Every structure is written in C-alpha cells, then in structure tokens.
Amino acid sequence: MLFQANKKIDWVYLLVIGALGFLLTYFQYHGKLHQLFYGVFFLLAVAFTSFQLKKLDRFYLLIAFLSPVSFSIDIIGGFSLKSPLEPLLMLSLFVFIVKASMNYRTSKFSWKHPLVLLLILDLMWTFISTVNSELTAISLKRFAMNNLYFIGFFFLFQQTVKSDQKRLFHYFGLGMIIPILFTSLQHGVHGFAQNYSFNVSQPFFDDHTQYGAIAAFVIPYFALNLKKNGKTVYLNSFVLAALIVAVLTSYSRGAWISLIAAFALYVSLKLHFKVKHILVILVGLSVFISVNFSNYYDGLKHNEVKYDDNISNHLSSVTNLQNDASNLERINRWVCAYRMYEERPIFGFGPGTYQFLYDNFQTPEYMTRISTHKGDKGNAHSEILNRLAEQGIVSSLLFLAISFLALSSGIRRYHASSKPETKKLILASLLGLTTFYIHGLFNTFSDIAEMAILVYGSMAILLTVDINEAQREA
Predict the structure, then answer these.
(1) Which residue, 106, 137, 171, sits at the end of a domain?
(2) CA–CA dist 359, 357 (Å, integer)
(3) Rounded distance between C-alpha atoms, residue 430 and residue 414, angstroms
(4) Based on the domain organization, do 373 and 397 belong to the same domain?
C-alpha cells in the first residue's frame, strides 16, 4: 500500500498534492492553460492515489488541507465549482460508500441527538423553500450544496476521523499557508495598503472579508496549542503568526471584532461562567442597547471616521453611518432583506436567490455609490436576514436554535470534562464558532465551502464529545 504508518510519507503526499494544487491555481489564475484540462488531470491523479489510502481519515484530512487552496472554476449552465475541494468531497463520499459496503467499521452516530435533528430539519426546510422558489435552478443547486456540506463535512468527518479530531484545524491551518504567502506577496508589492486589500486574496478567496474570517476561525486552535513540547510548538507558532498576519492585512473589521468576541468568551469560560451567566450578560446588553438605541443611533449618524491603514480608525469606522459606503450599503442590503421577508415571510424567495432578486426592493433613500442593479454583488450581509429573505422566518429560527445548541452544549461539556486535551479541543471549536457567529451579524459566509468545513467540522467535534461523555456518564 502507498500509505503505511509512516508520517514522512504522509507529509510527502501532502506536499506534492499541495504543490500540484498551487500550480493548478497559478495556471488558472493567469489563464495560461485551459482550467478544465488541469482540473480533470488533477482530480484523476488524486482519485488514483486516494484508493491507495489505508485509512479514510487521511483522505478527509487531505480535503481539509486542500480546502484553503481551492478556487472557483466555471462549469456548464453558468454554475461554478470549488476545485479541488467540492469534487474531492464528492469522491470521498463515494469512497466511504465503497468502504462501508466492504464492512468498514463506522463510528457512533446518534441520529436522535438534538443537534443532528435540528440540522436535518434545517435541510428539510431548505427543500420546502426550494420547492416554492422564484428561481428553482439556483435553489436546487444551493439545496444540493447544503446536503453535500452536511453529509461530507459533518457526518463523514464524524465517521472517518475517529480519533484526534483536532487534526481538522491543524491540517486546515497548514493549508492556509499557501494562500497567505500568495496574498502577502501580492499585497506586499503595494506596501500592504488598505485600499489594495479588497481582492488581493483572489483566486483563493473572493474578497478580504472571506480571507480574514476563515483565518480568524482557526487562530484559537493554534493559540491554544502553543505550549506543546517538541518541534510542534515551532510549527504552531509559525502558522499562528501567518494567520495573524492574514487577519491584520485583510483589514476585515468583522474578523477583528470576532476575535475580540472569541477572547471575551475565552475569559468568561476561564472564570467558570456557565451558559446561564453568559445569557444573562447578553440579555442585559441587549436591553441596555435597546433602551439607549436612539441616542447611540444619533451619534453613529455623525461619526465620520473612515476606514484606513490606522487600526484604531479602522475599528472606529465600523460605526460610521455618515459617509462610510460599506456600512451604508450593508444597511441597504438589510432593508432589502427585510422587505423581501415582509413579502414572503413563510417560505422566502428560495435558497440562493437574494443576490438576484434584492434589486427589486432597493429604493434611492438607502442606495449608495457602491450599490448595483446587476445582481452580482453578494448577499444580505447577515446570516439571519439572508435566511429571512430566502427561506422565511422558520429558517432563521432554526439557525438561531442550531447556534445556541452548539454553543451551549459545548460550554457545558467544557466545564464537565476533566481531560485537558478534550477541554482544549472543545474550546478551539467553541471559539472558532464564535468568530463565525459574530461574523454572521455583518456577513454571510455559511455558503462558502472553506467556512462550511470548519463550521460543520466544529459541530461534529462537539457532537462526538457529547456522545462519548454521555456514554461515560451512563
């Protein structure tokens, strides 16, 4: 077999495939050779070697490693595909089915677990919304994609990576080195100026917000693993430094704020705050902001601090509702999303349809200099509002329920566990999810494959811990 219990061979394999992925990306980005030819060649090479794998977990971790170096390629029908991530994910499902038919030993999986039930209900509602969609073809693709992410990133991960699940973050972080180096070289030519940060991470990430958000998600894992002995500490330190550089030079205010929120949760857990304590704090803050909203809003309307290279000014510009086009456009998208919800509150307009339909709900009073009528500039800039517009109130409530259950169950298990490594794994998952949910207030990243593998993978980790701990307590 190509793979034995030899880690050096694994590293050679990962480096070779990583190099192939980088070369493929380079040729595609510069248009030197037809991308489809290279895509097919690359996938055939991986497909051949994948069947030599002795363990499916290595195949899944290969997917995690290659996720950050994936990029979109156009396919028939005007659709796009994240390559090599999504084709490899489909291939992994096929390999799993073949292995399962050959008496492959599966892991414990509780279909009755509340988190699993909520995720399945979410998929069912997505299907119902798809049936009632204004743009059926678009919604069918989104429904198929959501199913692929759930089965591949949640179920398959939990079934194949049966031990040492922290490797998901480890290999993903290693894979991030390639786009970080590529982006830093491109950005460095322009002195890392803020006005060049928006699209410099292409072709790996569509814009700087995706780049910063995904880097922020895995920072907690590497920060929590700096104290390990041996050579691992040097590797973790290098990756952590690279990720911090990525977040800083992305100039993504959402990424910075999400890490501040994650650190606040970290401090709360270290102070032994339980779910009820955190809820009381959040409810108290919400009530305080609601009572004083008019005063704050008047102040925000007169804040003229614009985002720039200065970190302090850049963070302050988050509240600029006077002349910050990005903030004002976000409000425009939120207003459009709510208007769409008012028109179709139950089923919404269909999964994936917001960007193609929101123009009908724009009005001059909220439009900005960066507004568009072309339907080519993304989503509602809010996970909840995007779901309201596309799938109605039920979908938004399901998202909130899934978020609360994942975080609350993780917090409970963190306090209950007596194993340091288990606590560290839970904490890395919780803090990563926190960065995602905070981002969800201002952006929509759940439909991005690189984010989906981290979000579903983190929830799968929390599920595994919950199942194992519950069985020990029984």
Answers:
(1) 106
(2) 6
(3) 9
(4) yes
Helix or strand or coil: residue 227?
Answer: coil
Instruction: Report pLDDT digits (tens) over 26-78.
Output: 555 555 444 544 555 555 555 555 554 556 777 788 889 889 988 777 666 56
Q: What is the pLDDT of residue 304?
A: 52
Number of compact structural domains in the chain: 2
Q: Could you tell me the two tokens for 205?
A: 């990430």
Place of tokens 């989503």: 379
Reported as a single tens digit per residue, the pLDDT across 246-269 is 999 998 888 999 999 999 999 999
Nearest to 155 by CA among 179, 203, 123, 187: 123
Query: 372: burial class by Cβ within 10 Å (0-12, 13-18, 19+)?
Result: middle
Distance CA 436, CA 100 (A): 33
Low-confidence stretches of the chain (pLDDT beneath 70): 1-55, 74-79, 99-109, 228-230, 289-290, 292-324, 375-377, 474
Q: What is the pTM of this model?
A: 0.87
* Chain-centroid distance, C-alpha 206: 13
Decide: helix, strand or coil at residue 73.
strand
Residues 32 and 149 in one domain: no
DSSP character string of 242-293:
HHHHHHHHHT-HHHHHHHHHHHHHHHHHHTT--HHHHHHHHHHHHHHHHHTH
For residue 84, cis peptide bond before it (omega within 30 degrees of 0) = yes
Same domain membership, residue 327 and residue 447:
yes
Q: Are 439 and 446 in contact (CB under 8 A)?
A: no
Task: Report the amino acid identity of residue 71.
Answer: F
129: tokens are: 């919304």
Q: Are residues 21 and 168 in the same domain?
A: no
- Among residues 106, 123, 155, which one ends one of the domains? 106
